[in-house]
Amino acid sequence: MVSGFHRSLSLPGSNRLDEPCHLRSTSLPCRPHPALAHLIDQIRSCRDPCTRCSSPAAGLDRIDRLLAALDDLLRLPLAQDALRRGPAWADRLLDGFLRLVDAHGSLRSAATALGQHNVEARAAIRRRDPVRLASAARSHRRVEKELARLASTVKDLARSAHLTPGLWAEEADVEVVGIIGEAVAATAAASMAVFLAIAAVSSSAAASLSMGSWTDRVLRRAWRRRSEEGAMGAMEESIEGLEEGSGRVFRSLLNMRVALLNILTPSL
Q1: How many CB atoms lie within 10 A of CB 230?
Q2: How many other C-beta atoms can be found within 10 angstroms of the C-beta atom of residue 255?
Q3: Inside any domain, residue 164
Q4: Domain limits at 29?
């Protein structure tokens, strides 16, 4: 990615990420710093295609762990100095975090809306009200479209940006700033996976609440109502965990952007 240096950073998942990355310091000049190694592990976890098949709540947990690891790295003076020596790159990171904050703020609203729609659907099931069932189905479709839109807003962030040669005099600066950029890209990629997974759940709910299926199953087969309400209850429990996870990631992203601003703003 960066010409003119002994070693360059590459996308997580490539062979080069398996090479040891070193954060130089006066006390341990040749050993990999634990904070840097831990962050790389979290990037791999978020980039792993196998982990993306898990639940949206688990995806949010991985994002939160990655952000915690990034916060640990940003507390190191060498990481802070590297960002100060590349203000243009740091501004790009700030912009990326702002977009992620906006996207996850919208996710919180969508998660809350899903909970409300499920409550309405359960009420319609109990009352055998096809009109309210159809309304709940339309609401789920709107949430599905919103989540698909959110995924598209962070799609470009999921691609790791190339570092411009010559911006940093120290190779250690290139390594640190590059890994921070990889962390932002991995966060965006994992966020996309979460958004699309929840959109799929909402799409499935909309299909199950459609008139063609629920009119027969609920209105004409009232004896199945309890089992259907139990299924809606399980979905509500899942969404409750989703609201908690989305709120936690939103706060972590917000705190991360504030931390970057504090690093780049001279103390008075």
Answers
A1: 10
A2: 14
A3: yes
A4: 15-264
Q: Which pLDDT band, with edges at 50, 70 and 90, does 29 fall under? A: very low
Full DSSP string of 233-262? HHHHHHHHHHHHHHHHHHHHHHHHHHHHHH
Place of tokens 């691609």: 159
The C-alpha atoms of residue 126 and residue 129 are separated, in whole angstroms, by 8
What span, in angstroms and rounded, lies between the C-alpha atoms of 61 and 146? 22
How far is it, in rounded angstroms, from Cα 66 to Cα 238?
Answer: 22
- Model's pTM, two decimal places? 0.78
Q: How far is CA 224 from the centre of its chain?
A: 38
- Average pLDDT, integer, range 73-101: 89
Using CB atoms within 10 Å of the CB of residue 81, give its burial: 0 to 12 exposed, 13 to 18 middle, 19+ buried.
Answer: middle
Spatial separation of the C-alpha atoms in residues 122 and 225, rounded to whole Å:
10
Alpha-carbon 101 to chain mean position: 10
Residue 154 located in a structural domain: yes
Q: Answer for the pair 21, 171: CB distance below 8 angstroms, yes or no.
A: no
The C-alpha R_g of the chain, in whole angstroms, comes to: 22
- Report the domain count for the chain: 1
Single-letter code of the amino acid located at 133? L
Residues 6+ apart with CB under 8 A from 203: 140, 141, 144
Asked whether residue 62 is domain-assigned, the answer is yes
| Residues 6 or more apart whose Cβ sits within 8 Å of residue 175 | 7, 9, 21, 22, 23, 36
Distance CA 66, CA 60 (A): 10
- Asked whether residue 9 is assigned to any structural domain, the reply reads no
pLDDT band at 14 (very low <50, low <70, confident <90, very high): very low
